[in-house]
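By convention, the C-alpha cell line describes the chain's fold. To illustrate:
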Amino acid sequence: MTHFIFKKDGMLRGIALSLTLLLLAGCAGSEKKSELLSLLGVDEKIVDSNEDPENTYDAITLLKRGEAFYVKKDYIEAVAEFDRFLMLHPFHRMAAFAQFKMAMSYYEQLNTIDRDPGPMEKAMTSFQKVVSQYPQSLYVDEASEKITKLKLRESDHEFLIGHFYYRTEAYPAAIARFEKILTQNPEDILMEKTLYFLGRSQFELGEHAKAAETFKQLLQQYPQSSFEPKIHKIQPKLQAAS
C-alpha cells in the first residue's frame, strides 16, 4: 500500500484526502480497518504507548490513537480518544469521522438484549449526532441504518423487561413498558405480541374495557394472529365485565 509522509504544514490536508479516497473506495467497513490505520500512519500497535494521553492535544495524534485502539477492539479507550478529539477540536474537518467512530465504538460494545443498555443508549445518541451535526458527511447513511437497528433493539429490550413484569404479576409496570414500545413503532412481530401482552396485563389488572380495546386493535391489525385462540378464550369474561 502507498505510504503517505505527512509534513507538518500539509498533515491535515493529507489525512483528509487519504481518508476520503479510502471511504469512496468502499473501505470504511470493518474489513478495511487495518488499511485505514495504515493511511493514518500507524500499525497495529498503539501510537507511542509511552506517551501520556493527558498531555496529547494534537488532532492527528488523537485520531491515530483512537483508531489504533478501535482496531485492537479496546473500545473503551477508543471512545476516550475520539471524545477527547471532539472536545479539543470540535470544528476540525475530521470531526464527523471522530463522531462516527466513537458511535461505532459504543456499538461494538453491545451484548445480548438483557444486558446493560448503557452502550446502546450512548451509541444511539452518538449516531444521532452524526446525522444532526454532520448532515453532509460520508457517514450519515450508515449512521441512519444503525439508528434504525438500535431502535428495534431498544424495543426488544423493553419487551423483555415488560414480559418479565407480566410473568411476575407486576402488571402496572408491564403495562408501562408495553405502552412505551407501541410509541416506538416497532416491527410487526414485536407489535403483535406487545399488543397481546398489553391486553393480558390490562385484563389481569381488572382494566377490562382497556383490554377489550387492545385486543380489538390486535385482531384488526393481525386478523390471522396466533394469539386469536387465547383471546377468544377470555372473551366471555371481557363481555361479562362490560
Observations:
- The chain has eleven helices and no strands.
- Residues 169-242 form one domain.
